[in-house]
Automatic annotation (TrEMBL):
This is Sodium-coupled neutral amino acid transporter 3-like. One of its GO terms (molecular function) is L-asparagine transmembrane transporter activity. It comes from the Eukaryota. GO terms for biological process: histidine transport. It is found in: Membrane. Keywords: Membrane, Transmembrane, Transmembrane helix.
C-alpha cells in the first residue's frame, strides 16, 4: 500500500495546549444540549454511569486508533481503513466521517438560524420586528458562514484554530456558569434540549415535553431510577435514546488523527485525548445536571408562570445565547477539516496539497450545509438515523476491527488479550447500533415519526 507523501512527513508544530483546545472543541458541540434530556430519562445515577462508560470507551478507542497509526505510520482515519480492508475500508470510514460531521455541522448552523435573530432582536430592542432582513435566520446563517466559518475553514492547518477553539471553550464554560438551575427556566434553552433531542433521535413523540408541566411522577427520583432499569431491559423507549445522545456527544474520532498529525511531540496524543475527554466529561455532567434540575426541579405552577414572564432583554440570557452561538459557530471549521480530508482521500487519493482543491471542497461543503439548513430542515431528521449508525462505527467498530487487522499477528496473535478486548469492543458497537436503530424503527412504526410532524 502506498502512503501519500504528506502523511509520512510529521513536522507537527502545534503545542500540547492548543491541541487540547482543538480536540476539546471537536468533542463539544450541540451534543451538550441533548444531555439534560438524556439525564431526565435515565435518572442521575444511571446517566452518570453511562457517561463514565462512554468517556472511558471513547478514550480506549482513541488508544486503538493511535496504536494503529503508530504501527503503519499513517495519520488518517480513511488510510487506516485502506490498510486494514483495502478500498471498501477506506470508503466505509470516509462515508461515516462525512455523514457524521455533516450532521453535526448542520445542527450547529441550525442553532445559528434560530438563535441569532433573537440575539439581534434583543440587542436592537426591537419589540415588533416587521420582517427586517437582519431578523431572517436564513440570511444570518449565510452571513455567518461567509464571514466567520469560511475564512477559518480555509486555514491550511487545524493548529491555527487553537485560539478560536480556546475561545469557543471559554464561551461554553461561561454558558455553564450562567445557566445555573435558577436561571434555566427559559423556554428557549429548554427548546434547545428538545430540538437537539429530536435532531439526534428523530422522534417527535418527545416534543410533548413542550407541553409542560411535566408529569408529577417525573419528580420522583425512585421512579426515574426504576425507569432507567426498565430501559436497560429495553422496555422504555425514551431511555433508549440516552446512549445515542451520549455517543454523539463524545464523537471526536475523525478529528483525532488530523490533530495528531500536527502535534509537536507526537507521542503525547493519548494525553491530549485523555485531558480533553476528562474536561468534557465534567462539563457534560454539569450541563446535564443543570438542565435536568431546571426541567424537573421546578414546581409546575412556577414553570407556567415563567413562560409568561420571560424577559427577552434579560442581559444574562442574552449573554448565554451569544456564548452558545459563538461556541457552536467556531466548532464548525474544526469539524469540517476531517470531512474535507475524507473527501480528498476518497476522490483524489495520492494527490498532494493543492490550494484550489482545498478551497473548493470547503466552499462546496459549506454551501451544501447551508442549503440543507435553509431549505430542508425536515431532512435533518435523517441525521437521527445517521447518528445511530455512524457514531457507533466511528467510536467502536472501525477502531476495533482496524486494530485487529493492522497490528501484526507476530506482535499480538489473534487470541491475545488485547485483540480479544478489541473484538468485544466491536461487538459492543454493533449492539449499540442495533439497539438504537431498533428503537428508532419502533418509534417510526408507532406513527410518531418526525418527518410526519414536519418540524
Ligand atoms: N463532533 C461531532 O461529531 C459531534 C460532537 N461531539 C458534538 O457534541 O456535537
Amino acid at each position: 500500500v502506498s502512503i501519500p507523501r504528506h502523511y509520512e512527513i510529521f513536522e507537527g508544530k502545534t503545542s500540547f495546549g492548543m491541541s487540547v483546545f482543538n480536540l476539546g472543541n471537536a468533542i463539544m458541540g450541540s451534543g451538550i444540549l441533548g444531555l439534560a434530556y438524556a439525564m431526565a430519562n435515565a435518572g442521575v445515577v444511571l446517566f452518570l454511569l453511562l457517561l463514565t462508560v462512554v468517556a472511558v470507551l471513547s478514550s480506549y478507542s482513541i488508544h486503538l486508533l493511535l496504536k494503529c497509526s503508530g504501527i503503519v505510520g499513517i495519520r488518517a482515519y480513511e488510510q487506516l481503513g485502506y490498510r486494514a480492508f483495502g478500498t471498501p475500508g477506506k470508503m466505509a470510514a470516509g462515508i461515516a466521517i462525512t455523514l457524521q460531521n455533516i450532521g453535526a455541522m448542520s445542527s450547529y448552523l441550525y442553532i445559528v438560524k434560530y438563535e441569532f435573530p433573537l440575539v439581534i432582536q434583543a440587542f436592537l430592542k426591537l419589540d415588533n420586528p416587521a420582517g427586517e432582513w437582519y431578523m431572517n435566520g436564513n440570511y444570518l446563517v449565510i452571513i455567518v458562514s461567509i464571514a466567520v466559518i469560511l475564512p477559518l475553514a480555509l486555514m491550511k492547518q487545524l493548529g491555527y484554530l487553537g485560539y478560536t477553539s480556546g475561545f469557543s471553550l471559554s464561551c461554553m464554560v461561561f454558558f455553564l456558569i450562567a445557566v445555573r438551575p435558577s436561571v434555566l427556566i427559559q423556554t428557549r434553552e429548554k427548546r434547545y434540549f428538545i430540538f437537539l433531542f429530536c435532531l439526534l433521535c428523530d422522534s417527535c413523540r418527545h416534543t410533548q415535553m413542550n407541553r409542560d408541566p411535566p408529569p408529577p411522577h417525573r419528580h420522583h427520583h425512585l421512579f426515574s431510577i426504576r425507569c432507567s432499569l426498565y430501559s436497560l431491559l429495553w422496555t422504555n423507549v425514551c431511555t433508549a435514546y440516552t446512549i445515542p445522545i451520549l455517543a454523539f456527544a463524545f464523537v471526536c474520532h475523525p478529528e483525532v488523527l488530523p490533530i495528531y498529525t500536527e502535534l509537536r511531540k507526537y507521542k503525547k496524543m493519548q494525553h491530549v485525548a485523555n485531558i480533553s475527554i476528562a474536561v468534557m466529561y465534567i462539563m457534560y455532567f454539569l450541563a446535564a445536571l443543570f438542565g435536568y434540575l431546571t426541567f424537573y426541579g421546578k414546581v409546575e405552577a412556577e414553570l407556567l408562570h415563567t413562560y409568561s414572564s420571560i424577559d427577552p432583554y434579560d442581559t444574562l440570557i442574552l449573554c448565554v445565547r451569544v456564548a452558545v452561538l459563538t461556541a457552536v459557530t467556531l466548532t464548525v471549521p474544526i469539524v469540517l477539516f476531517p470531512v474535507r480530508r475524507a473527501i480528498q482521500q476518497m476522490m483524489f487519493p495520492n494527490k498532494t496539497f493543492y490550494w484550489p482543491r482545498h478551497i473548493a471542497i470547503a466552499f462546496v461543503l459549506l454551501t451544501f450545509i447551508n442549503l440543507l439548513v435553509i431549505f430542508a430542515p425536515n431532512i435533518l431528521g435523517i441525521f437521527g438515523v445517521i447518528g445511530a449508525t455512524s457514531a457507533p462505527c466511528l467510536i467502536f467498530i472501525f477502531p476495533a476491527i482496524f486494530y485487529i487487522r493492522i497490528v501484526p499477528k507476530e506482535e499480538e496473535p489473534l487470541r491475545s488479550p488485547q485483540k480479544i478486548l478489541a473484538a468485544c469492543f466491536a461487538g459492543l458497537g454493533f449492539l449499540f447500533m442495533i439497539m438504537s436503530l431498533s428503537f428508532i424503527i419502533i418509534d417510526w412504526t408507532s406513527g410518531t415519526s418526525k418527518a410526519a410532524s414536519g418540524h
